[in-house]
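#structure-requests
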Amino acid sequence: MHKEPLESLRDRIVVCRKCPRLVEWREKVAREKRASFQDQEYWGRPVPGFGDPQARLLVVGLAPAAHGANRTGRMFTGDRSGDWLYGALHRAGFANQPESVDRDDGLTLSDCFVTAALRCAPPRNKPNPEERKNCRPYLEEELDLLVRGRVLVSLGKYAYDHVFRILKDRGRTVPSPRPDFRHGLEVDVGHDLLLLASYHPSQQNTFTGTLTEEMFDRIWCRAREVLGR
């Protein structure tokens, strides 16, 4: 049976074992589990992107959380960051529900695709350069396949730097030097694509007030405004 390109890419991502350190860590977490999830079977594999193949809004985070997407098998699902992200996408009309509990909870995205720079949970959320290099082709292929993309939201400085580097290397018209990361930064990278930077909805940011719900909502309202042109 013929598979769609994104589906074929997904099949390749979920069996990837290119990075020994990340393979060991994700599988260790999946075996030992967090006490509150002892009765659940962890995904424990690389996590593919998720969303609408015709999306004009592309969202890029850092990596699966050890007890979030590494447990559930879907990006930003099963943790507080996902609660913030999908709640905001729901309020902006990109998601059919505000909750993201597991990969079979009925969540669907409209005109939106969510992915990450890394597909495996890294120890202490710190991938090394070789791991970043190994995983980069997966994101590049997604960007190639999501041909209708018009707004690319990077969640956090790591994702911003990673995406900016990819766009520059692939011949996009980007400013030099790279603009410093800040929440709400907009960078026109040519060919009707806008790079929009946001603080990551991690507990480190949301619990301290570095990122508020109002600030986060403005990102998605801005994306709506651009797509509505």
